[in-house]
Amino acid sequence: MLVLALDTATPTLVAGLARWSPDGATEMLAERAVPSGNRHAELLTVAVTEVLRDAGRTLADVDAVVTGLGPGPFTGLRVGVVTAAALGDARGLPVVGVCSLDAVGSGARTVVTDARRKEVYWATYAADGSRADGPGVVRPEELGPVGPVVGDARFAERLGVEVTPAEVMTAGLVRAAAPQLADPSSAAPLVPLYLRRPDAVPPTSFKPVTTA
C-alpha cells in the first residue's frame, strides 16, 4: 500500500510517501520536513508535489492518506486535515487521522511539543508504544513527565529533565496509522485535536460605518 502522510501540527510541516505492508514493514520513498512557521497553507501543496516527484510517483499511485490530527494551533492544523480530506475525497481513498504526538519517538516516553502561550502539548506512552495518557496541554513546570522525554528540547530547563530532540516524521505517522490502514473501515472521522479554543473571537460590538 502506497501511503501519503501529512502533518501540519507543529512549526515543521511534514509530507512523506511510504510503502506500507500489513506485516508492519514500512519502506520510506521520499519525505519533506519544512520549517514553515505559519506558512502551512502556502507550502504544503509544494511539499506534496516534491515528495511525489522525488519518489517517481503521482497521486494516481497513492492508495491511502494519513494525516496528523494534532494537537496543534487551529489555523495550521486544519490545513493538513482539510488537504488530506480533499485528496481522499477526490481520489476515493481511505484517509486515516492519528494523534501527531503518537508519531514522535518510540517506546516508553513522554512527548512534548510547543503549544505556544508558554505551554506544551504532551502525551505519555508505554513500552509497547501505546498511549497511556494524554494528549493534554499544560505549563512545563506542572507536567511531571514519566520516563524519557522526547520532542522539543527547548523546554528541557522548564521541565527539569533532559529532552531528546524529536519531531513528527512520516515513519511515525504510518506506524501510528497501521491498525486503521490494515482495516480502513475502522478509520474514525477526522476530528482535529485543538485542545484549546482559537485565539480569534467574533467581535461583541460594531462601530457604525456612517453617522447621521
UniProtKB/TrEMBL annotation:
InterPro entries in the cross-refs: ATPase_NBD (IPR043129), Gcp-like_dom (IPR000905), T6A_TsaB (IPR022496)
Species the sequence originates in: Geodermatophilus poikilotrophus
Protein name: tRNA threonylcarbamoyl adenosine modification protein YeaZ
Superkingdom of the organism of origin: Bacteria
Gene3D superfamilies: 3.30.420.40
Residues covered by the Gcp-like domain: 38-143
GO biological process, one term: tRNA threonylcarbamoyladenosine modification
